[in-house]
């Protein structure tokens, strides 16, 4: 007979899985229609709800630093005697890799050339100009740094307080009860079902990007053209990697995989910085950081007000914020494990700033490289993007370096491991919310992690096969809106529970579950 503490929450798990399977079948049978629908949704949602996502991100950034620098920042997660379970290096690498997935290796590398050659109307700069270059690199830096890690971290803080300082289970039930009252318990199962559906779709999006990029890498290395078969093979390999890592547990699989991936990132970064246009990169990077610091909130809220024909917000910033919002609650659940033994202020500042600084440096190097290649005429990146796609152009750039083929192989390996380090914690967290009665230190059943991982891989393949990048962007907007409301409930819960804990000398509050 199955342990009561390890029973599958059938009312949450199976409805979500059935809906995902229906989505998969529709994508297989009606591939073109699915692609067109998702593209239509992408622009419709951006035009009508873009303001909501952008305003939400601004509010979250402010609240994150309010939580850190207020009296709540003194709260020690787990109480005065709590000790961290993970070394600072492992914590930072798991936070970095868990947040970026394949994004930093795909969008953040070639994205600056888009903003350089087709800036938004709101930027007020001429395409291809010096001002456009600074805007392009600084905008990409901001989109991949502080905003996304504030979203993840504030949710992580809420889960850390309720699990370590209030000794409640690692689930949305206690969060909902604090955030909206006793009614939260009644809708916990529904919320878990929505989270499972949305996050499986979200991870499939990130994995879809990885399939496209690895397919381009295989073509660059071996000359094998990209095709549905190649994407399918890559999906299977990625699935085996991250499912195996997830099943082995956070202390074994993810910790080692994140550390390895970060070391590979650093090696690639140093190699490109030394052998690339170092002075140009340093100059443009410095000016871009200054631009970013001058206009952070302006860069957070770019819409097409009085410029209806401008699709830049829909193509970029709105779907970015929607994607980060989707991940926020579930990655927060995972990252809460890193907070134990640290003050809330320490946790927030390190978890936001350390990964953000790395991402800013990465984009300074690769963004500066792409602008330099374009403006010097060494390589027409813009032409390459428009003819062969962004995923292929990245490998053309890498091949301009000495030992370019070897660099490409290392880069492809990093895509595999980078995605695995993001999918692993999400699959584990989804398996956790699919299981009754787990504590923060418990591992979810391996069989659930496997089922969820297989679903993610299948969805990624369908998304790429049905319409590529536009389908992926459209899917973000579908799953982002409902999760945004859940995210704010998590944040409200975090502040309310922090207010209770800060009044206690040991920061521990034990409440009757029946209250």
UniProtKB/TrEMBL annotation:
<dbReference type="InterPro" id="IPR000060">
    <property type="entry name" value="BCCT_transptr"/>
</dbReference>
<keyword id="KW-0472">Membrane</keyword>
<feature type="transmembrane region" description="Helical">
    <location>
        <begin position="89"/>
        <end position="110"/>
    </location>
</feature>
<feature type="transmembrane region" description="Helical">
    <location>
        <begin position="347"/>
        <end position="369"/>
    </location>
</feature>
<keyword id="KW-0812">Transmembrane</keyword>
<feature type="transmembrane region" description="Helical">
    <location>
        <begin position="187"/>
        <end position="208"/>
    </location>
</feature>
<comment type="similarity">
    <text>Belongs to the BCCT transporter (TC 2.A.15) family.</text>
</comment>
<keyword id="KW-0813">Transport</keyword>
<feature type="transmembrane region" description="Helical">
    <location>
        <begin position="316"/>
        <end position="335"/>
    </location>
</feature>
<feature type="transmembrane region" description="Helical">
    <location>
        <begin position="475"/>
        <end position="495"/>
    </location>
</feature>
<feature type="transmembrane region" description="Helical">
    <location>
        <begin position="12"/>
        <end position="30"/>
    </location>
</feature>
<feature type="transmembrane region" description="Helical">
    <location>
        <begin position="50"/>
        <end position="69"/>
    </location>
</feature>
<feature type="transmembrane region" description="Helical">
    <location>
        <begin position="450"/>
        <end position="469"/>
    </location>
</feature>
<protein>
    <submittedName>
        <fullName>BCCT family transporter</fullName>
    </submittedName>
</protein>
<feature type="transmembrane region" description="Helical">
    <location>
        <begin position="228"/>
        <end position="251"/>
    </location>
</feature>
<feature type="transmembrane region" description="Helical">
    <location>
        <begin position="263"/>
        <end position="284"/>
    </location>
</feature>
<feature type="transmembrane region" description="Helical">
    <location>
        <begin position="146"/>
        <end position="166"/>
    </location>
</feature>
<keyword id="KW-1133">Transmembrane helix</keyword>
<dbReference type="Pfam" id="PF02028">
    <property type="entry name" value="BCCT"/>
</dbReference>
<keyword id="KW-1003">Cell membrane</keyword>
